[in-house]
Amino acid sequence: MTVNTLPPEISHNSQLSTISVFYTLLIPALILWYVYWRISRKQLVELAEKLPGPKGWPIIGNALDLTGTPHGIVNITCHSFYKKIVFSEIFSRLYSHTHNFDNVMKIWVGPKLFIFLTDPRDVEVILSSHVHIDKSNEYRLFEPWLGNGLLISTGQKWRAHRKLIAPTFHLNVLKGFIDLFNANSRATVDKLHKLGDKTFDCHDYMSEATVEMLLETAMGVSKKTQDKSGFEYAMAVMKMCDILHARHTKLWLKPDWIFKLTKYGDIQEKLLDVIHSLTRKVVKSKMEAWNKGIRGSTAEVPDDIKSNQKKEETQAKTVVEGVSFGQSTGLKDDLDVEDNDIGEKKRLAFLDLMIEASQNGVVITSEEIKEQVDTIMFEGHDTTAAGSSFFLSLMASHPEIQERVIQEMDEIFGDSDRPATFADTLEMKYLERCLLETLRIFPPVPIIARQLRHNVKLASGDYMLPAGCTVIVATIRVHRRPDLYANPEQFNPDNFLPERTANRHYYGFIPFSAGPRSCVGRKYAMLKLKILLSTIMRNFRIRSDLTEKDFKLQSDIILKREEDNIGQEIDEFIKLGMFYGFGPIDWWWLGQQILMQTIKLSDDYTKDDNKRKTVTKYLYGKFLLENMNNESEAHDYLHEARHLATGKLWRVRELDIGQESVFKECCKLLYKILMAMGKKIAKSDPMQAIRLYAIAEKHAADACIIPEQVDAILLQGLCTMDTGNANSALLMFSKAIFFCNNLKLTEKLCETNIYFALAYVKVGKSDEAVKVLKKLLLEAEQNNLPFYVAQANKFIGEYYLNEGKPHMATPFLMKALEKFHELEDISNREQTKNLAAISAGQELLPKYVAVILKCNYGSGFENVFKINKWKDCREMFWDDGNLSSNDSGQSLIDFLAGRITMGKYKRTVGSRSYADFDPEVLRLAIEKRRKNGRPYRKLSKKYGISASTI
Length: 950
Ligand code: HEM
Hints:
GO molecular function: heme binding; iron ion binding; monooxygenase activity; oxidoreductase activity, acting on paired donors, with incorporation or reduction of molecular oxygen
Strand content: under 5%
Organism: Aquatica leii
Keywords: Heme, Iron, Membrane, Metal-binding, Monooxygenase, Oxidoreductase, Transmembrane, Transmembrane helix
Bound molecules: protoporphyrin IX containing FE
Transmembrane segments: 20-37
Number of strands: 12
Mean pLDDT: 78
């Protein structure tokens, strides 16, 4: 041991000096690193200095602009039109910076240089190039999810796979999907009808619909391939996007090793499990169909929709150009190749083609297929879900425009509810303009990032972008340029009148990007959106309490609308309810009122997948149980909360509740309630108690509380024994033993073994019981569990006593007595003392009787007392003690009385039972007779000891 002999102030000073040495070394090290970095990246730094951008700090640059909450709200005013748009904090900071710089803006985030482009001429330089196709490092975070799929890959791999995949989204392939688009759109409308007049978040429904359509079309499998709806997958994708967004904005989360140590790492793993399990199922199911010779989608199309297929096929040669399918007028890419360029073989849908390619050669491996399926599932669903949700929101906030869309639908379809055909989609001119305008004002992919390997000269001015920087094409800013769109912040479908689009720069509208790395799914997206949205508009009028200026945008990977205020309000209520209901102040009645109101408020709130509703019901159930002792009502609330939380990964930690998951917490409380209910009725109605314990057991298993699960099994076993079915009880106890052994629950194992032995006794297998007890004794001794050592000894002793082998019983009982005494377990100690006394007594009894028989006639009893006195306190055998006053005689009587009280161990001597002795009477009688000088004879006779024998 070392002793610090320095006085405290000296020790403190030495700590200070260590810290100051550290800083003295750190600061020059940082300066040196900075100088080295500037020299090694001289060209990058010099070219960057010529670019405009907001002022930053030394070393960290503008990194502070990227801190803050992605969901925090600030109001900003756009420079020219004074129209308020509410964006999230980071998003709005960057967005407003871009207004201060005309076409180009640079920011430094530590050593990383980002350059934002907003001029379509510059955007063209980057996007039309076959050289600048590398994605920026930020896309690396997608890798655990999307692998090296089309979105992320580069170089030869990207080129080869793009060539393979692009034709699978050719218009002629897409026309074959129309029936499925119609069928799924109808299914969505049916779901919406069921909601009646309720307000709901359309994004959830759009997400589910787009996932299911992708599965049935591009993947060619039935949506029934997965057990659950597309909703679960869509929610997992949304949460994954939140995590990726957090990693983009919280710089310390970027290194993988730190990320994995955080809660985000854990959550990501679980989400990827949900996502990848769907992909695996999809590929497996398609592979099986392929091996059976089935090509095309295996999804079923209802008959009334199928009937249009023939008519559609005759229109297959229609060639469509222009904005109808998302491309700017005049631009062509690899998706726009003519029909004749596509051989019959290439006109397979996406996953069919992938599987064929993997079987016919080395073009693509099965791992690569999985990566591409993940990529298409993500890119194809979240983007269209966002686009369609924005469309519906805008319809609601512009009723006059909505009416024009509905009017167009009436003109095309009249009163018929027939499914839409491809020709119909070409007729939907106004809806199409509304859709394009939606994608302009709220582009689902708001920015595109590329890594530059070479210097690039810009077209808009005398600027050079240095190799090594990240270029960001700020689509959302390009789309809101006043020189391209009059009143750019205004939703105006006429921006896409043919005469206006014809005069606009090709790269002034790029929701799907453009050039060689443009979106492969743009035609697919447009066709699907037209069918889905037209079906909805033919069935509903959309209303919303929000106007466009209330929209809050989330600076996410995919642009989305922020959560509304109701969710936040419920969160606040929950916190208040918890504070008053469970807090330190005794205001539970206020807590109860708040929780009851929160239940009402959250009952109709379904857009968070019922999370808040579930949490509130859970809290109220807990309140009723803990504060009101109202088990049955608490049970109902908790049961409902548990049901709603089943299969959900909700962490209630965000709401400061601090449990692992609502589901598990509900199960724990339900377990408690059912066990308590069971115990209350176990005596009067053991059958019902068994049922309650069985449900409690299931809850304990769900909550992963195994010792509690074992308790529930033990109680089932005990009740089963009470019903006289000891054989079933044995089975239950062996189940409990199995759990205890597996999980090394030694103490529980000991307890269970005691019940196990008891059940053996009940079925008449006492020898088995004693084997179990001996094993238990060993186990308890090895694990130093004195209570179970005592219990085992006691029961083994009792067993031998019952067997009529007191000489074997006594050592065990004496050991048990000693242990209970040490443990100060009074009740067990007293019981064991009696047993030990009986056992020892039984051992000695024949000897006592023999001695009495040997004693002479007149003093038989006196001698018995003397023997006993000698046994207890080693008094001289020949000393004539005073029987009436000392306790030696009393101890014999007690001994006899002990046997009498223990009843079950009673033995008879001669013709009389010891049970007939009244110790007090006996003592007084002996005393009296002795004093009268007529000792013992009659008394002996009275108590059945015959005079002749004596
Ligand atoms: C409204 C709907 C959609 C929008 C706004 C959209 C937008 C975009 C954008 C802007 C890019 C370029 C991203 C970048 O370079 O960082 C892109 C790429 C991509 N999109 Fe889409 N997309 C949509 C729908 C779809 C659909 C439905 C699919 C598939 C079925 C799809 C598949 C892809 C793929 C695979 C890429 C990567 C292409 C490559 O790098 O070669 N997208 N999308």
